[in-house]
Fold these 4 entries.
Entry 1:
Amino acid sequence: MTDINELQARIARALDRIATGVEGFEPGGGADEVLDDITGEPDGASGTAAADAEEEAQRLRVLLEDERLAYAQLEERLKTLRDRQDGASAELREQVSAQREGLAQLDSELQRLRKANQMLRESNDALREANAAGVGEPHLINKAMLAELESIRAERSSEAAETRVVLAALEPLLAEAARGGAEADAQEEAG
């Protein structure tokens, strides 16, 4: 009975060493020590215990290789996901930058429109006062017409800027829809 307990203790110690040292396990390196712990006999004197230990070591090598392969596959998937994310992030940064530029231009055009409308109001007020006084001054009429023309130009410019902002926002959506449609067509052809 003591031999069985002693053999169990040796096997437990050997399995502990295998569990902690499986990364550094090399064929032949340290295998004799494991066999000695399991069998209690130096230099692998016991054939059955040595064969069992070698089978266990081989099984552990196979498991270790499987885990390494799975780890390598996970690393590759992670790299692919990071690359996709980086590409999507760069694309989003470009879109945000383009939208900021469009909004800045739109703001500039709207400021120009407000200024032109203010000039038009002032010119019309001066023209009304001159007509109320019975004095028809041609330079006020010219000034009012110029202010009105500038107001029209500014309004058209602001509309064009708004259109550019809307188009800049729609372009990525349209490109994504086109890619999705092409993928769907490819899947239909393949299927």
Entry 2:
Amino acid sequence: MVHGAAPGHGSIQGVTSDFLAACRREPTSRTPVWFMRQAGRSLPEYRKVRAGTAMLDACATPELVIEVTLQPVRRHHVDAAIFFSDIVVPLRAVGVDVEIKPGVGPVIAKPIRQASDLDGLRALTAEDVPYITEAVTGLVRELGDVPLIGFAGAPFTLASYLVEGGPSKHHEKTKALMRSEPALWHALCDRLADISLEFLRVQVGAGASAVQLFDSWAGALSRADYLEFVAPHSTKILRGLGDSGVPRIHFGVGTGHMLKDFADAGADVVGVDWRTPLDVASRQLGPQIAVQGNLDPALLFASPEVVEREVTRILDEGRDAPGHIFNLGHGVLPDTDPDVITRVVDLVHERSAR
């Protein structure tokens, strides 16, 4: 059993931790810390255990999911584990022909471009993902007092992959369909919202203590387009989990112009990327929303003095927020030195201990 988090006040489903306390804007013994993509390519033990196994196959193998999810908790002593999976896992589970190509990302064999293409996008049920239930149940048992964060992709980011056929710098096909075929767009996003909501419900039902909704590409939109074409669908997911009792984290990159909208969708915590200072973000969000972030992932390659100074600055900026969870402003980069990540965890705990 893994024990890496100092006891705090927040609790849910038998788990007590500073992470959950911060999500709920309650007092903590120190600032909790975890990292997006903490379970992944930056760890040599991950590369070893994943060798020869395709990403989506790994995500459907419970014993592998459990091992990879636990690795950063053992090594770094972070205050929460993030479930090892991928945002396209539920799409594959409902029959979408998707492959994660190394160095490229998710590639869709048959992109969605017209109404008839929606016929292949059916609803997700728990029976479609028994390996998720098995992995989450096993992880909750292994993690002990360390909370497990479940996650899913938000409709806009998933829709972008489905419409573009893969990753896109400019999302031109996505934006064109969104504006030219609004009925088709909303029908697509409504189905994706149902899929992601059920994917999160499965994780929560199996024991996840919190969830994070990733809308990685929403920052490519204007605020007006986000409110009209995206917010209703993300709201369906986050508010659909309102009766679950678990904290809901909402994160996107480049979303400083619509942080309040991210909160209004039904979030308890808003993830902030490195472009917006946490104190500025917290003032925008108000006293009912905790913040998460927001060290620039690239700064983990800087000198120890720079890293220490930036960690201290972010802790200072987050101190007056109603709740602060230390994280990066996006995911850990693959070539990051794991020892630097461990040192950041130690620094956060040392500098914030009360």
Entry 3:
Amino acid sequence: MKRKAQRDVLRDPEAAFVIQKVREGLPMSEFESLCGLLGLSEGRLAGLLGLSRATLHRRKKAGSLDRLESDRLVRYARLFSRAADALGGEERARSWLAAPARAFGGETPLDFADTEVGAREVEALLGRLQHGVFS
């Protein structure tokens, strides 16, 4: 079986655009959109991104997230997209991401993905589920 060629991020105009936007800080409208997609309150998503209530208020006032917060937001958007693809839809993705999983020691996939290493483990499990490898 052939391996898919990895995307060359430096030559991919879409990836380069996203990287630049993350570096600049994503607008709060992206935060609000992801709240809707994931079915989470602003407070819950802020917690996943490591934002306190006061910092969330400041970001709303400023109109954008900082670079690290933007990077975390993209991580969760990526996971939602992968979960929707692997599980057959957005509603299933929302449910799966919010449900405690034995594979993650009882944590939800959203909570487990609060680090890049954790997010990779969530993606790996989604890949196994998508290809019928039960874990």
Entry 4:
Amino acid sequence: MKVKVGILSAGADCPGINSAIHWFVYSAMDRDLIPERGMIFDIIGIIDGWKGLIEVKPDKKDSLNKWTMKLTPEIVRTWDRYGGTRLGTTRINPFDPKNDKSDILIKNIKALGLDALVVIGGFDNLGVAYRLYRENINVVGIPKTIDKDLSETDYTLGFDSAVNIITKDIDRLRITAGSHSRIFIVESMGRKAGWLALEGGEASGANIILIPEHDFVIERVVELLKVRRKAGERYSIVLISEGAKPRGMEEIKERRGKDGFGHYYLGGVGGFLAEEIEKRTRLEVRYVALRHLQRGGAPTAYDRRMGRKFGIAAVDMIVNDDFGRMVSLKQGEIATVPLKKALEKLNLVDVEKYYNTKNYKSLDRIL
């Protein structure tokens, strides 16, 4: 039996996506397993995520060549070692109430003859996948987001690579911070979940960590920095999530407005904090926003391995008709969970377990 499968990445890029695609293709095309499965896979990569499925004209060759590509082991052979997504991606919401393209999307999926669709995405785009499943599209989800905010899985592709990047960048900043005896405010991503800042701060030894799950008091931050300076410390590193906010204030937003999923673009809270510290002290402060640096570069060994495991699991899910579900890592084992359950809530930092709300740092203790 021949099975035609589409695969796409949606939303922001991150390391590990290409590894998942590579191993999905390699596993699906494993000649030793074809007789056992009774399936021959025909895999179609969708260019630029949902946009590709919306824009493609299935009955026109030029359009097919522009928005889709046949994936074989020869084509994806080296993909696993590269960051980003070789298929491309966009931040389009096909179900955007202001510009609903879902009818076109579903029509094109059927016109392309896809028996299943593999979606590599985060919370919002796996939400799109679930809505497609409710429209009788056979969907399999692979979790990827550097925020690690998807529930029902202990890991999402891209997180380890992003934490490594934060650690390396802060290591570099220490040199100039110490040379000039400065405070550096480093802003990481993390809209609602503070995992990036918390674990990046642990790995880099950041002196103060500020996360979205607990509003901080500016006066307390200033007090902690003064204590460090009085103790003879030449410099301090404050790592702050883009979604963190001072007590009594809203998140600091960029001027770009909202994306297709209704989220404001966040950014600038680190700059705001730097200005406030300088106003209240005579200390010299610099602000660095890591932003998309966290998404770049080659995947770490862990992200390559997890991409492999998730990609192979997605093939097994299709073989077993395990649709409407997401690949998951639970207690060290690969499993699958219903998309509906994975989307019921965000995976946020448990402040009581993992965060020192007095000194704004990781809470390191045996539970």
